[in-house]
Amino acid sequence: MTTTIVDAVKAARESGDYQSVLDSIPYMKFLGLVVEPDTAGPICRMPGSDHIIGNPVLPAIHGGVVGALLESTAIMHIMWSHESLHVPKIINLTVEYLRSARVVDTYAQAIITKQGRRIANMRVEAWQADRAKPVAAAHAHFLLPRAED
Amino acid sequence: MDVDPKSLTWAEKLAMMLENSQGQAKALGLALESAKRERTVLRLPWQETLVGNPATRVLHGGVITTLIDSACGYSLMSYFETLPDIATLDLRIDYLQPAEPDRDVFAGAEVYKVTSSIAFLRATAFQTEGDPIANAVATFMLGANAPKYNARQG
Predict the structure, then answer these.
(1) Which residue of B has its CA nearest to A70?
(2) Total number of domains constituting chain A
(3) Residue ranges making up the domain that contains A127
(4) Tens-of-pLDDT digits for all 154 residues of chain B?
């Protein structure tokens, strides 16, 4: 595979299919994330599996993995929104854990709350069976590349 | 193993617990570097599968998040010398610089304040001690599931 991430993003802009972009990012693939297209931006689905468990007693998804899903969704959103052909750099992230995340399908979707020339401020929410009952939410800042291409 | 668990120190028990852990901690290969009441350090061995940017081979921020969250959990276990019933309320991380590829990452966490129901922690991730790649603060609820158990008993 010689396809670079930039090629993958360019191809996705043509096809509207961002799964190949996600699959070229090792840790997102490792978590088993699946991109589900939506007019408001990609919804990332993380299937429940043994290797994402943090607390085997409850059992619950690892809090750090929930954070990783939220961050990954924000990254995918920025690339989907034509703000970057590259993986944007995360500056900081605040995760609020609202409910215990059971080991089932978990979804996340992001919005850009404020877009500057260099910085994007993002809000991301994750939910499971009921979107009205989020399991976690995050605020994050990302640094955008200086220029496209 | 022919080790008598009673002869082990608490830190040794925690190290063994992490070694035998399942789930994400096992997938990441997390290991206990040191466990003291005042500070607990975990080690994340380098793995290509944890990369977040294939162009630079920098680790995904989410891996650092998971490492820091785990270090906070083990720090609480070191602090209380028990397996506390905890839930993360929030976790805030500043990513100070990218992790260098092909090198292990460490996270050290300390419990700096405990009230009857909340624990406050701070943590740093680093590859070279004293040169942090991420800085974090976290808040944990203590006795998170206790009311449920009490209700069941009563």
Answers:
(1) B62
(2) 1
(3) 5-143
(4) 566 767 889 899 999 989 888 899 999 999 999 999 989 999 999 999 999 999 999 999 999 999 999 999 999 999 999 877 888 999 999 999 999 999 999 999 999 999 999 999 999 999 999 999 999 999 999 987 655 444 433 3
Cα Rg of chain A (Å, integer):
15
Q: Which residues of B touch A30 (CB under 8 A)?
A: 27, 49-50
Q: Strand, coil or helix: what is B19?
A: helix
Largest CA distance in chain A: 48
Residues in Cβ contact with B132 at an 8 Å cutoff, skipping those fewer than 6 apart:
B96, B124, B125, B126
Which domain range does residue B83 map to?
5-153
Contacts A67 to B, Cβ<8 Å: 62, 65-66, 69, 91
Check CB contact under 8 Å for A97 and B59: no
Domain count for chain B, please give it: 1
CATH of the domain at B138: 3.10.129.10
How much is the ipTM here? 0.92
Task: Give domain status of residue A61, yes or no.
Answer: yes
* Of residues B59, B62, B95, nearest to A64 (C-beta): B62
Chain A residue whose CA is closest to B50: A27
C-alpha to C-alpha distance for A62 and B88, rounded to whole angstroms: 10
A37 touches B at CB < 8 Å: no
Given CB atoms, is A16 within the 8 Å cutoff of chain B?
Answer: no
Asked, for residue A149, whether it belongs to a domain, the answer is: no
Q: Is A86 an 8 Å CB contact of chain B?
A: yes
Beta-carbon count within 10 A of B118 CB: 12
Q: Where residue A106 sits, what CATH number does that domain have?
A: 3.10.129.10
